Amino acid sequence: MKGTIMKIRFLLLALAAAAVTPAFAATESAAAKWANECGSCHVAYPAKFLPAASWTKIMSGLDKHFGSDASLDPATNKLIAGYLAANAGSGKHGESPSTLRISDTRWFQREHSEEMDPGIFKSPLVKSVANCGACHTAAAKGDYSERSIRIPGQGNRRHDD
Amino acid sequence: MKTSRILLVLALVAATSAQAAPADFLKEFETQARAESAAFKGFSAERGSQFYRAKHGAEWSCSSCHTDNPAAPGKHAKTDKEIKPMAPAVNPERFNDAAKVEKWFKRNCGDVLNRACTAQEKGDFLTYVLSVRK
């Protein structure tokens, strides 16, 4: 008898735990979904690279996503759109709300204008400005720091400072 | 009562993450293809191979990203991002998840053919990639 009550108590506890975890699980799985889904055709560009308004537009037009069909089922779309809006860029990364293309933003252009050969994005080793990982060797991990930059064909990036 | 509820929840969780096998999709495409055409005569790896390599009025073929050999790693034609091999013989992650299969046929048929694929085309495609060993 006592054993049965213990079992029921345990089950109730398990149920309570299951009821509490979804809030946690939702944030975790939104980030995981973003990484998986957005990262399947290109590097999963960090949410902070565009302002929330741009992400909202992008996520509502995934069937015509820069020339490709990148549509998601409605539940996944909603989850990722929420994640992107919650982590979207502000400050220097939030300045071009009408821009959908990260490479068109003012901060991107500024960051990629100094000491750079303008032809590098079209070089066969890079192929496209969308290919962050060609130079930002740790882009897949969300690391775009100077120290991880290796311009293909030019070796390590030189630093004057 | 509680136990049965928990079992029900567990069963639902198991059902949503259920793994499928390529043969399940072949069967499903066959049922659909019979419904689409009374003249259905089965799938063909040869037709699938031609379909895989052909451009269908737009810029890309399947092979534009997945390369000429479905058992080899591919590269996204635009972004250069690596794509894992298409052939289940070398990549068991292929054709084992219904939502994934539906998602990618919708996207890629749209990009390559500018329309949805027929069940005949999907079945020929799958028969072909299943026939590729390495």
Report on the architecture of this protein:
The complex is a heterodimer of chains A (161) and B (134). By secondary structure, chain A is an all-alpha fold. Chain A has helices spanning 2-38, 52-59, 74-86, 106-111, and strands spanning 150-151, 155-156. In chain A, a hairpin with a 3-residue loop joins β1 (150-151) and β2. Chain A is globular and about 75 Å long. Chain B has six helices and two strands; from the N terminus they run ααααββαα. A two-stranded antiparallel sheet of chain B has the order 1-2. In chain B, a hairpin with a 6-residue loop joins β1 and β2 (82-83). The longest helix of chain B is centred in the last third of the chain and has 16 residues, at 98-113. Chain B starts with a helix and ends with a helix. The relative contact order of chain B is 0.20. The mean pLDDT of chain B is 90. Chain A binds chain B through residues 8, 11-12, 14-15, 18, 40-43, 63, 66-73, 126-128, 130-131, 133-134, and chain B through 2-3, 5-6, 9, 76, 78-81, 99, 103, 106-108, 110-111.
List the helices and strands and how they pair.
The complex is a heterodimer of chains A (161) and B (134).
Chain A: H1 2-38, H2 52-59, H3 74-86, H4 106-111, E1 150-151, E2 155-156
Helix pairs in contact in A: 1-3, 2-3
Chain B: H1 2-16, H2 22-36, H3 45-53, H4 62-66, E1 74-75, E2 82-83, H5 98-113, H6 119-131
Antiparallel strand pairs in B: 1-2
Helix pairs in contact in B: 2-6, 3-6
Overall 3D form of chain A: globular
Helical stretch tally of chain A: 4
Q: What is the N-to-C order of secondary-structure elements of chain A (H for helix, E for strand)? A: HHHHEE
Helix content of chain B: 40-55%
Beta fraction of the residues of chain B?
Answer: under 5%
- Quaternary structure type: heterodimer
Question: What is the number of helices of chain B?
Answer: 6
- Largest sheet composition of chain A: 2 strands, antiparallel
* Nearest-integer average pLDDT of chain A: 83
Mean pLDDT of chain B: 90
Largest sheet of chain B: 2 strands, antiparallel
* Beta-strand proportion of chain A: under 5%
User: Total strand count of chain B, please?
Assistant: 2
Q: Low-confidence stretches of chain B at least 5 residues in length (pLDDT < 50)?
A: none
